[in-house]
Each structure stands twice: as structure tokens, then as C-alpha cells.
Design a protein that fits this description.
Elements: E1 8-18, E2 21-27, E3 40-43, E4 46-54, E5 57-62, H1 64-69, E6 80-85, E7 104-114, E8 117-123, H2 126-129, E9 137-140, E10 143-146, E11 150-151, E12 154-159, H3 161-166, E13 177-182, H4 184-192
Antiparallel strand pairs: 1-2, 1-6, 2-5, 3-4, 3-6, 4-5, 7-8, 7-13, 8-12, 9-10, 9-13, 11-12
Length: 197
Amino acid sequence: MFTGLVEAMGRIERTADEEAGKRLTIAWPGLDGVLALGESVAINGCCLSVVAAGPDVFEVQAGPETLLRTNLGAKKQGDAVNLERAVRVGDRLGGHFVQGHVDATAVVRDRRREGEWEFFAFNIDPAWTVLMVPKGSIAVDGVSLTLVDVETDGFSIMLIPHTLAATSFGLLEPGARVNVETDVLAKHVQKLLGQSR
């Protein structure tokens, strides 16, 4: 379980194909200590297990399902990724409940400045917008955000300067693909109402 409050912006140091999956080596600048083997880390919002680690660097393996549903398969050396360790009991929950289970990817349709803020609009499969509501929660590339508007096949958000500087959002341009996790509570309500995907 995560909060969607990104701890660091890391960089892909290396990628290697492994049968149907990939192994990613990720640099985490300023990491306090060494990650434990098996520890869960959200990488652009995707929960993966640490399989090797050293000072300021760790490795994960992404299987076929992860590569199909997320943007991690398209990442290359030097690309920025958002990083968050799993929540510990007693931690503050400043974002919202984020499982690290990416539902789908969305594509940046528009980005524009509005004063100090930045407006982003995304296109996504309409099957996912039924789980979104204006002013509700969403995780985009692992960042806990508030939805501004929801359309049939898209949604929008507004970002403050801190979020732009501390996450990979500052690097996003129209056409970029991002990971999306809808609110887990909405998924449970949908299933209880018999409208499961």
C-alpha cells in the first residue's frame, strides 16, 4: 500500500530483456540506506519487488502483465521515474490509498500554464472514466492527485509548482504515456453494483 506522495525522482540506469519480461536498474539519489530484498517500491505507481540493491540503486523485474498495463516497458536509460516506498503502520497518509496496481495508461492530450499552476488533460479508455469523479482521487504515474474534470474518454488535473519540480510531471509533454490507478473504493462500489468490467 502506498500514499501517492512521491519520495524521489529516480532514473533508469539500465534495462535488460528477460524472456517475456524486463529487469530495470534504477538509481535513487539520496536514498537513506539500502532497500531490502523483496521490499515493495512504487515505480511510476507500479508496485514491484526489489530483487537486488546497493547504495542509491536497486533492481526490479517486470513481467508480461506489468509491461502490458504500464509505461515501464517503454522506459529507457536516463528516463525519470517517480519512486515511493510502501507505507509503514503509523505513517501519515497525506495522499490517498494507492495499491500500486496500475489499471491502464493514459496519454497527455494537453499541457498549459495557468499562472503558477499547470493544467494537464489526458485521454484514456472510457471503461476507466466511469470510476472517476470531479474532485475525486486518482494516481497518475504514482502521484496522488485530485481530478478537475472527467469526460467520457478523458480527465484533467492541475499541478502546483512543487509537484512539477519533485516529480516527473515537469518533464511530460503532449503524447507522453502515463500510468493510471483509479480509486480502489470506486472499483469496489462498481463490483457491488454488478457493473464489474
